[in-house]
Amino acid sequence: MIRFSVRMTAFCFIFMGLISSCSNRDSGARAYLEAAESAYQAGNFPLAKLKIDSIAMLFPNAFSERRAGISLLQQVRMAENVRNIAFADSMLVEKYAELNAKLPLFDFVLDTENQDLAMYYPRAYPPNVSLNRSGVRARVNEKGVLFIESVVVGNNIRHNQIRASVRDGSFAETLPVTSDGLNARFSTPDNSFEIVTYNGNTENGFAKFIEVFQNEQITIQFIGSRNATITLSNAEKRGIIESLELSILLTDIERLKFERSRSEVLIRYLENKRE
After folding, report:
1. Is 268 inside a domain boundary?
2. Helix or strand run (H / E) with residue 157
3. Residues 193 and 145 in one domain
4. Confidence (pTM)
5. pLDDT value at residue 183
6. Apex 155 CA angle, 219 and 179, nearest 5
C-alpha cells in the first residue's frame, strides 16, 4: 500500500506539472495574441505582425492562439495596405501640385526614339542654344530619368567623359561612355559636333555637384583623345539644376504610384483569400 501510494503521489505531481505547463503555455500565447490585437488597434502594424509571428515560434502547440493569430494577421495586412493607399494618395496630391508648378520651366516634347514617352527640356538652356557652343545640357523623361549631355562644337577631340571642378579642388566626373547611340559624332557643312549622353550610373552624381556648387565658378573639362575646357554658364547651371529637381520629383511620383498599385493588388489577394 505504501508503495502504491508513492506511485500515485508521483503520478499526481507529474500530472499537475503537465497541467501547469499547458496553462503557462496557453497564458503566454494568449498574452502575445492580446498584445498583437492591441498593436493592431493602435495602428502599429509592424509590432502586431511581430507579436503574431512570435506565437508560432514560441508556442508551436498553442493551436487555438495560432489560428486566431493567422486570422488577425489577415486583418493587419488589409489595414496596412488600406493605410498605404491613403498615404500614397495624399502624397501624390502634393507631388502633382509641385509638378504643375515646375512644368512651365520646361518644354514637353515627344521622344524621337520612343513616341510613347515624352521628354522635358529646360527652357533655361534649350537644345537649340546648346548647339551653338560647347557646353552641358540636361533633359528628363516622363519616368524621371535624368540625362546629362556634353556637347562639343567645332573641335574634334573624341571625348566620352566630362569633369566639373571648382577652385578649391572639389570635382565630380561622369563615367566614360562608349555605347553606340549615347556617343554621337556628326558634321554639317558648317560645323562638327560631338554629343555624349550620361544617365544612371554614368551620370555619377554630376548634376548634384552642379547643384551644390551653383554659386561658384564651375569649370567643365571634356575628356577625350585631347581635352578641352569651358566655364559653365548660369543658364547651363539652371537647366541642370531644374532638370535634377524635376527628375527627383517624377521619380517620387513613379515610386508612389508603384506602391499604391502594389497595395491594391495585395488587397484584392486578401479579399479573394477571405472569400
Report:
1. no
2. none
3. yes
4. 0.83
5. 86
6. 85
Q: How many CB atoms lie within 10 A of CB 160?
A: 22
Segment 17-31, tens digit of pLDDT: 444 444 455 678 999
pLDDT tens for each residue of 104-128: 999 999 866 666 678 999 999 998 8
d(CA 68, CA 29): 11
**Residue 104 belongs to some domain of the structure:** no
Residues 38 and 147 in one domain: no
Query: What pLDDT is stored for residue 115 in this prediction?
Result: 63
Q: Which domain holds residue 216?
A: 111-258
Beta strands across the sheet bearing 228-231: 171-173, 161-165, 219-223, 228-231
Query: Could you tell me which residues come within 8 angstroms of residue 136 by beta carbon, excluding any fewer than 6 positions away?
Result: 148, 149, 150, 151, 162, 220, 232, 236, 240
Q: Which residues pair with 220 in a beta bridge?
A: 164, 230
In a domain, 275, yes or no: no
